[in-house]
Amino acid sequence: MTLDLPSTREEAWRWADLGGIAAAAALTPITRPDAQFLDLPGAKLLFVDGVLDDAASDLHRVCVGDLTPGAHALGKRATRGWSLHLDAQAVAHPVQVVHVATGGDNHVAAEIVLDTDTSAQVVETFVGAGWSNRNTRIRLGKAARLMRAVRMTQGAGFVTLRDEAELGEGASLIGTMLAAGDQGVRIDAAITLAGEGGYAEYGGALLTRDRLKQECAVRVRHAEPNGQSHQLWRAVAADQSQASLAAAVEVARHAQKTDGEQSLRGLLLHRTATVNLKPELEIFADDVKCAHGATVGELDARALFYMASRGIPAPRAKALLTKAFVADALDRIADETVRAAFAADADAWLESAL
Amino acid sequence: MLKIENLHAEIDGKEILKGLSLEVNAGEIHAIMGPNGAGKSTLGYVLGGRPGYEVTAGSITFNGEDLLEKEPHERAAAGVFLGFQYPVEIPGVSNVQFLRESLNAQRTSRGEKPLSGAEFLKLARAQADALGLQQDMLKRPVNVGFSGGEKKRNEMVQMGIIDPAFAILDETDSGLDIDALRIVGDGINRIMRKPTKAVLLITHYQRLLDYVQPDRVHVLADGRITRSGGPELAHELERQGYAEVAA
Ligand SMILES: Nc1ncnc2c1ncn2[C@@H]1O[C@H](COP(=O)(O)OP(=O)(O)O)[C@@H](O)[C@H]1O
Ligand SMILES: [Mg+2]
Which intervals hold domain ABC transporter (chain B) (predicted)? Predict the structure, then answer.
């Protein structure tokens, strides 16, 4: 198939693994893997190769049908999917979406629209093999709050996410991503704080091994004053893998009193692995506070020996240190059940990678 | 219990230990004193198996087994404990978790049942109390933000929990005020002064030895034991300095 994606000569795609996406789309069918929902109330959606499995789903307030495709190179491919629209004052239980891929490519769109003062929680899980591509459009009204957590735990293939979010006055978006499978990943996001006093946290952990490539390419735009954004990303790269974190903050001329934070940290489990970091600031206002840090390192040899001297075998000691390294990023998940599930995925990855 | 013969060890190709021999029997506490840079910490690290510390000649047997054959964590499980001169900070890993992992890893490798969370917490609290370490420091990340004295007490709390057969304590007294010194000294006696156990106490000063009476005192200078004697040797060193005594 022709991918019809931008080339890696384009700056925003420089670390993209186009070959990996093409290979994932060409994966031969596998038997449908087991997929489980977390033990939480609320809507449960099971998509198999991009098609809703009615019998296994429970939609509650969620609708499934045709959606307007986006304009983005990844987003435009998805024309059908799910949507959640909460009117003012409505409440909703968490929405769980499980995406199962059994080879080939699949594309799903989603639309989350929260009106004034509403709040929602969305948890998404990717399993299986193939190229799973998602386009998620989020619109948050005044003081609306969305917590979204996505874990990518496919056994093979690729997951690409294109997220587009627009936050109204005093709205809050907390997005936490975890890549802990054996798939390539591109998390491509554009988040706009379009109302005054918006709050966005968008970050997570990429755990990569073998020859896989995982990346985030995120741009947060402060269009109005008094906004706050935090982009906290952790990348752990083993073997000959490559993890790339590109996070940009853009502050428009009149978006005064913006507080933007970027913390990008990479951990190389082996010297043969690569971590690329690209923090980017484009500030056109003069009264802003933007902190950014970007570091790449290895596990602390002194700490490893200290732990060994207390009886902890090397693989376990490495797992504990690596877990501590990614904990900051995953601790942002407020719901305890969800947080525990994500921590368990990260643990499982570490146990097998080390 | 521990027998070191003609030990030569180097770091980055530089020989630090140059034919060191030492024997410690069960029930004994030996003090090792010596000038800065003599190789005292190096001896501790070699016993613990720290990567980069290469043994080029000689042997170390522990309870009749070749200690050098074992990985660092296996040495711990065999009963060797190393109290660090500079305890390491581990951000993001709590003291409680670190110690429970340590103890249970050792227990598992010895074929014993791991302790439950509750059992472990009870043990940890008792040891922290005995060494005057505040309970909330158990929950904090390992050694992060601890004062020098708190780090040393934490080493002793770890020793109390792990209950090793043999401890190498590297300048556990440095950074302690006089009250803390007594508490730590009492802790060493309580945990280690047993007929089945032994201690190698590395120190600069006589003052810890006022609390923990050594059976033997050795002077380590330029990578070798240059003199050995009874407790009176420590007093002689304190009066006359290493240069005089070790020569
Ligand atoms: N990592 C290292 N690389 C090279 N030389 C070292 C290293 N660590 C210690 N040394 C050297 O080894 C010698 C002994 O050090 P050490 O065992 O720490 O002495 P002590 O504990 O008796 O003060 C010193 O000369 C020191 O400079
Ligand atoms: Mg020393």
Answer: 2-247
* B75 assigned to some structural domain: yes
Amino acid at A337: T
The ranges assigned to domains in chain A are 11-353
Q: CA of A323: which chain B residue's CA is closest?
A: B92
Does residue A1 register a pLDDT over 70? no
Q: What is the pTM of this model?
A: 0.90
Chain A neighbors of B102, CB-CB under 8 A:
307, 310-312
| CB-based pocket (< 6 A), ligand 1 | B 11-12, 14, 16, 34, 36-42
Taking each continuous run of H as one helix and of E as one strand, the counts in chain A are 4, 17
User: Chains A, B: CB contacts under 8 A, how many?
Assistant: 77
- Ligand lying nearest the CA atom of residue B222: 1
pLDDT tens digits, residue range A152-186?
Answer: 999 999 999 999 999 999 999 999 999 999 999 99
- Look at residues A121, A83, A84, A127 and name the one whose alpha carbon lies nearest to residue A106: A127
Predicted local confidence at residue A208, as pLDDT: 98
Separation between Cα atoms, residue A84 and residue A63, nearest integer Å? 7
Indicate the DSSP class of residue A313.
Answer: -
CA of A157 to the centre of ligand 1 (A): 50
Report the b/e string of B35-67 with b at 16+ CB within 10 A.
beebbbbbbbbbbbbbeebeeeebebebeeeeb
Interface pTM, i.e. ipTM = 0.96
The count of C-alpha atoms lying within 13 angstroms of the C-alpha of B89, restricted to the half-sphere facing its C-beta, is 8
Does residue B245 form part of some domain?
no
Nearest to B73 among A301, A303, A311 (CB): A311
Mean pLDDT for the stretch of residues B75-91: 96
Answer whether residue B152 is part of any domain: yes
Measured between beta carbons, the chain B residues lying within 8 angstroms of A303 are: 88-90
For residue B81, give the CATH number of its domain.
3.40.50.300
- Domain extent, residue B168, equals 2-240
**DSSP string computed for A84-133:** EEE-TT-B---EEEEEEEEEEEEEEEEEEEE-TT-EEEEEEEEEEEEEEE
The C-alpha of A313 sits at a distance from chain B's nearest C-alpha, in angstroms, of 6
Spatial distance between the Cα atoms of B30 and B28, rounded to a whole number of angstroms:
6
Check residue A58 and report its DSSP letter.
Answer: B
- Assess if residue B40 is contained within a domain: yes
pLDDT at A113: 97
Of the candidates B50, B76, B91, the beta carbon closest to that of A311 is on: B76
